[in-house]
Amino acid sequence: MKFFDEARIEVLAGKGGDGSASFRREKFVPRGGPDGGDGGRGGSIYAVADSNLNTLIDYRYTRIFRAKPGEPGRGRDCNGKGADDIILRVPVGTVIRDQESGETLADLARDGERALLAKGGRGGLGNLNFKSSVNRAPRQFTRGEPGEERKLDLELRVIADVGLLGMPNAGKSTLIRAVSSARPKVADYPFTTLQPNLGVVRVDVNRSFVMADIPGLIEGAAEGAGLGHQFLRHLQRTRLLLHLVDMAPFDADIDPAAEVKAIAAELRKYDPALAKKPRWLVLNKADLLDPEEAKKRAAALVKKLRWTKPWFVVAGINGEGTRELIFAVMEFLEAGRREAKGAHPEHEAP
Ligand SMILES: Nc1nc2c(ncn2[C@@H]2O[C@H](COP(=O)(O)OP(=O)(O)OP(=O)(O)O)[C@@H](O)[C@H]2O)c(=O)[nH]1
Ligand SMILES: [Mg+2]
Questions:
Q1: Which atom of ligand 1 is nearest to the CA of 164?
Q2: Do residues 65 and 90 make contact, with C-beta atoms less than 8 angstroms apart?
Q3: Which of 39, 100, 149, 201 is the most exposed place for a label (fewest CB within 10 A)?
Q4: CA of 58 to the centre of ligand 1 (A)
Q5: Whose CA is nearest to atom 32 of ligand 1?
């Protein structure tokens, strides 16, 4: 499942510092020669791909990046200091385009890859540079050049890290609303969701993952029941499945354990590899039960399924238990990313 994460930013490199027109002033040296130094370089702005990031969300909050100007040159042969460059960290896979020309400035496909977005202005020359045999007291100097300025479009193709799976009405869309800024429709009838939705789950600064909410699945989906099982293809490239179960079904005859098994069977029919993907149980709607009863039902379900993988009790509707869930997911994904990095050392940042 892919979608495009986008941001529009403006980058303004720093102006170069002006050169200086100054003359030496010393005791007993009546007319000292020129000693005006050059201006410093203005700060440039670069983008660098960083595999620890996976969204452009930071660039929705801060949109304008302005580097500092270089310092002007001074007398006594002092050159002005150059300004610091600004480095914008972006996720690997970010494509950067100039808004006006549409030209692609950078396609940062590998960790550590770097691109110049706006060049700082060169510093001006001090009068020292203009000294010659015919003009020993030049008053000329040049001004610093302006820095480049650009309006940019940033675009990233995002692949979901985590997929939500479950029967209709299990509360998948409610959960993604609780933990991300995605706003899919929620309603108390089956098959509310007809299109996959993606949301970015932000756990902390620089720690986030992408979650996919897909339409509900029912027994017989492989034979076309409900909406069929075509939507399962959106889960194929995820790293983890969260299997949602309504632990307080309206109809007391419904056996949640049987439902879990039915979904697992549908996964196998669709693609045995998908059935082998890590899958955690998320027992939802705990708010409808008193805490003791919720614990009892969860324990009974886990026992009946002989469940050995992680499981969580949550209530998407009020966010209860979701924090613990998303932190566990984040840690699981980070461990996987570290492993992948270790396996391909050539992708390490220089
Ligand atoms: N009490 C309670 N109700 C919930 C909870 N989560 C979801 N619901 C309700 O359950 C119904 C179905 O929720 P959805 O989030 O639309 O379920 P879904 O799994 O996305 O359903 P489909 O899109 O049809 O597959 C809605 O009426 C929700 O308000 C919860 O934690 N507690
Ligand atoms: Mg839904």
A1: 19
A2: no
A3: 100
A4: 30
A5: 285
| Window from 59-63, 255-259, 276-280 with minimum mean pLDDT | 59-63
Percentage of the chain with pLDDT > 70? 97
Of the candidates 184, 195, 262, 172, which has an alpha carbon nearest to the alpha carbon of residue 225? 262
Cβ of 177 less than 6 Å from ligand 1: no
Write down the residue that tokens 């697992």 correspond to: 264
**Closest C-alpha to 94, from 74, 113, 72, 121:** 113
Instruction: Kindly give the distance from the C-alpha atom of residue 57 to the centroid of ligand 1, in angstroms, as a whole number.
Output: 27
Q: How far is the CA of 175 from the centre of ligand 2 (A)?
A: 9
Atom 27 in ligand 1: residue holding the nearest Cα: 188
- Looking at residue 27, its pLDDT comes to 78
CA distance 95 to 108: 6
What is the H or E stretch that residue 256 is in?
helix 256-270
CA-based torsion, 28, 30, 31, 36: positive or negative? positive
Distance, CA of 67 to CA of 62 (rounded, Å): 14
- Give dist(CA 196, CA 263) in Å, integer: 18
Whole-number Å distance between alpha carbons of 321 and 328: 11
Residue nearest atom 13 of ligand 1, based on CA coordinates:
171
Residue pLDDT, tens place only, 264-306: 999 999 889 899 999 999 999 999 999 999 999 999 999 999 9
Measured in Å, residue 3 CA sits from the centre of ligand 1 at 24
**CA–CA dist 16, 120 (Å, integer):** 7
Residue 315 CB–ligand 1 contact under 6 Å = yes
2 pLDDT higher than 60:
no
Per the model's pLDDT, the better-predicted residue between 338 and 16 turns out to be 16
Tell me, what amino acid is at 212?
A
Q: Which amino acid is at 125?
A: L
In terms of Cβ atoms closer than 10 Å to its own Cβ (0-12, 13-18, 19+), residue 160 is buried
Contacts 24+ apart (CB under 8 A), 303-310: 304/257, 305/257, 305/260, 305/261, 305/281, 307/281, 309/278, 309/279, 309/280, 309/281, 310/280, 310/281
